[in-house]
Specification:
Length: 758
Amino acid sequence: MDRLTVSACLWRQVVRVLEEERPGAAAAQNLFAVFKDSVDDGVFCGLATIHDITQHPEWIFADLVEHREFLFITPNCGVRRALKIMDQHGVEALPVFDQRQFIGVVTRQSILEVLLQREHLLLIESRKLKKMLDVEHKQIVSWSEKLAGLHTASRSLLSVLAHTSVESDLLQTGIEALTRLLQARYGAIGIMDEAGGLKHFVYTGISPEQTKSMGQFPQGKGLLGVVIQENVCLRLEDMSKDPRSTGFPADHPPMKSLLAVPISHQGRVYGRLYLSDKEDGEAFCKNDEELAFSFAHSLSLVLDNAREMQEVKKARQSLDYMAHFDALTDLPNRTLLKDRAQQAISHAQRNGSMIGILFLDLDNFKVVNDTIGHTLGDVLLKRVAHRLAECLRDSDTAARLGGDEFIVMLPDLSDVQDAAKVAAKILESLTLPVDIDQHKVFVSVSIGISIYPNNSQNMDGLLADADGAMHHAKKLGKNNYQFFTPEMNSSAQKYMKLEKHLRRALEQNELALYYQPQVDIEMGLIIGVEALIRWFSPELGMVAPLDFIPLAEETGLIMPIGAWVLKTACAQARLWQKNGLPVRVAVNLSSRQFHQVQNHQQSRHPLLDDVLNALEETGLSPHLLELEITEGILMQHLDTTMEILNILKSRGVSLSVDDFGTGYSSLSYLKRFPIDRLKIDKSFVNDITTDPSDKAIIAAITVMAQQLKLEVIAEGVETLAQLEFLRELHCNYVQGYYFSKPLPADEVLLLLQRGRLP
Ligand code: C2E
Ligand code: MG
Ligand code: MG
């Protein structure tokens, strides 16, 4: 309230009078302000009170005020000061002057009345305030009770923040606390698993018997589904009126109002809780929703924390796994292998035992991979890993280094030959084809073996030794095992050197074709020539095809080299043809050329492309080109191989089977292919004069080939005696040093010009 001043306490009953007037009988209640000349604008002379008048009833006002001290105060003077002045001067009233102008009078009584009035107002106001305070106090008390309840419920949840899972009994405590807190009849919490099914479902307010008769838990359809799918709260006075409601299952207790809140954290919904029917029959209010929401939030933190911990655990496990195992085959990787090797070496040192290291590399894996595709190639690796594991004891370790390289470690060997036995067992286990997606894939493996402590003393050295031995096994024709010997080290190094130089051989024109005549012995005529590649390396000297063709196949260099051979041979034959000396040229194909993959831009298989381009570009008649393929290529009998051979055949190109007899193909099998002739391998010809079985084989081949209308050429004929034997067997076409070694083109020209051979 404002400070109380004199102006607010003016005494209303002041009577203005002139000084010459005389107080009458009416003077009893009044106080008189006395003026000279005029009551309105005359000079103020003083105040006359009832007390003055009763003392001197005869006097006029001038007399009554004349002897008085002249006192006055201003309107903004405080009432305390006014009362004090009255006390000091023993008066009951004071005139009030505002800028020398008389405006009224204050009296003790007038001040007292105003003070009483004020006190009354204050009293009313303070009563009002007290009432308001009471209401607020009650609210605060009820809120703090609720908060305490929420706190208890939340605390039971938060106490497990450090745990990695939420247990049902914890949820039970929580929902009971919340339901009690919000005075609801029913409450439930549903937590979902990763697939969206119910992982936990706890409820309160429904008896176990009732639950049994209801049958199943909520399916997450209808309103409760909405809460989860849309991650929103629902607060409904009557849920049956909501169009999204799907109604209750039979035997469900009737429920009306609903408060449902999602349990979610950062957009990830873990489940929902819901309450139904307040005990007082009222609908749930905004405050209830906030409480339930805050409870759900705490719960979501627990769940989120649990999820994160689970993820961390999983990640840690998978990191650990990744660090030690090969993801494709689940075999130990290099790291784990080295670890185990270290232990095995220490063990072997103490016990004086040996360790065998087998280095395995699949043969022609690149070819297989290109043919069946990388996905199936991976499947093949898995199958191989599986077969490998089947050949080993528990104490052995099979590991994958990457690609098609595997390592087998055999700890605690007592005999070096035990390593050979395992190697042989592995080779044997791979002889059966692997069935992959309707392909029958034949795999073989080359194995190099090193032994601790006979070879290197540490794992790196043992691996390098076994690697060298493996390369040696490859060179010896693959599908075998070899022990490491010190010479292999240099041989492995030589191999790498070879590869380096071979990569440049084509660009640097180091390759050449030689041609070896094929002769009809009846007529003494050259019926064809076989193109045989030669590599004149400035660094390595003359390298024989058997020394670099396998390497070219392994590295894929056979593709550009093969294309070059085709083009060069065709160009040469075309030149002879132009010179009036048409002669058929036979070109060797490697299986890798068949297994190239046709990409989207290519309208035909790359090998067909190479052959047909060579013919088109050189203009050579197709019937002057023969392609030599090995039994191995036919054995793989892939649809594409058949298709390519048929197309080539239809174009007029002839086909022969090279090194016939060294593979396992039967003549009846060969019948399916569009083959023109067989080239009997030189190993049979070599011993024809001394080994009756070789003679018998050649005889059989010749007879059967005639029935199948196939020509037969014998390779590697070196002596007259061999020639005579062949003539006897009616094998009239031959190729060999007896007539001519492979020769450069210009020397062949001389032979062709001469026409007949001696
Ligand atoms: P091949 O196709 O069986 O060729 C016959 C091999 O026997 C040739 O060896 C040839 O010089 C040799 N030879 C011929 N007559 C006699 C003989 O009377 N006695 C003996 N001991 N050997 C004889 P070369 O030229 O060293 O070729 C070896 C192999 O390299 C070939 O065997 C063939 O498989 C492969 N090759 C050669 N040139 C090519 C080529 O251009 N592409 C492909 N993919 N492979 C080729
Ligand atoms: Mg050949
Ligand atoms: Mg041959």
